[in-house]
Inverse folding.
């Protein structure tokens, strides 16, 4: 999954970005919906234009995870990732998929995959792909927003906890986990290029390209799409709809894949009769 990536930076200056953003508004409430990338090339400038205005106007920031929950994610991963009994990666992957997995391991430390659940191996492979693409979570949108809102003394809330987020993967049935792992391994040799293309589409605010790439990535495993994308979007849309009952201005920043397409948060809110306008 492109949205669970952590990595190193790049020495080259990164282009500026104009990510897609929507506004849900009524007489006394405004919720800006900003699509984020959790990791970016160092030096990426994304907080200009309408985004700068939304940051300045917002009374509070709402993200997938609060800073404290994000800091807890590593410990939660280590608790949930181990298998009850080891199973060799060679018994899970074959042919090009296994070769690609080994090639990713050769780029850094051993994943220790034999002792881990399929979903956890997939997450580690995604992180290694991000390293290949020269992405850094320190340059990601959430990290930048956190710094700005903390400096301004504005509150930061979260839609999920680190544990509930990881449990989305942990509770997938075994065949779905295996399908995700095999698909990730089969595409691992192209993963860095695909992540770079996804980042470029996000930078342009090209929601059609984002939707096409994300759909191709996850539609092959419908149970995963339902758990990781659609069901969460429903919960977040319900939260936003309820929040519209109170006055104020909120910046809601979540992974860009959750804001595009017919089951994206903006589309769900519009279908519920709210006024949703793309503002960048």
């Amino acid at each position: 999954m492109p949205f669970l990536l952590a990595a190193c930076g790049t020495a080259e200056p990164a282009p500026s970005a104009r990510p897609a953003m929507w506004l849900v508004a009524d007489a006394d409430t405004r919720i800006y919906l900003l699509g984020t990338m959790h990791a970016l090339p160092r030096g990426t400038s994304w907080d200009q234009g309408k985004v700068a205005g939304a940051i300045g106007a917002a009374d509070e920031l709402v993200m997938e995870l609060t800073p404290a929950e994000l800091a807890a994610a590593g410990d939660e991963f280590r608790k949930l990732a181990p298998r009850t009994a080891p199973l060799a990666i060679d018994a899970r992957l074959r042919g090009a998929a296994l070769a690609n997995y080994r090639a990713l391991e050769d780029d850094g430390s051993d994943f220790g995959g034999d002792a881990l659940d399929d979903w956890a191996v997939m997450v580690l492979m995604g992180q290694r792909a991000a390293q290949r693409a020269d992405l850094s979570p320190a340059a990601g949108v959430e990290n930048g927003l956190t710094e700005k809102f903390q400096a301004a003394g504005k509150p930061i809330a979260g839609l999920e906890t680190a544990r509930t987020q990881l449990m989305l993967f942990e509770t997938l049935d075994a065949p779905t986990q295996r399908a995700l792992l095999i698909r990730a391994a089969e595409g691992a040799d192209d993963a860095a290029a695909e992540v770079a293309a996804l980042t470029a589409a996000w930078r342009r605010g090209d929601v059609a390209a984002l939707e096409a790439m994300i759909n191709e990535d996850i539609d092959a495993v419908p149970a995963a799409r339902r758990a990781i994308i659609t069901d969460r979007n429903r919960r977040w849309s319900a939260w936003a709809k309820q929040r519209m009952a109170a006055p104020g201005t909120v910046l809601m920043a979540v992974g860009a894949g959750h804001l595009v397409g017919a089951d994206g948060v903006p589309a769900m809110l519009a279908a519920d009769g709210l006024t949703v306008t793309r503002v960048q």
Q: What stands out?
A: Strands lie at 21-25, 29-36, 60-63, 156-158, 248-255, 276-278.
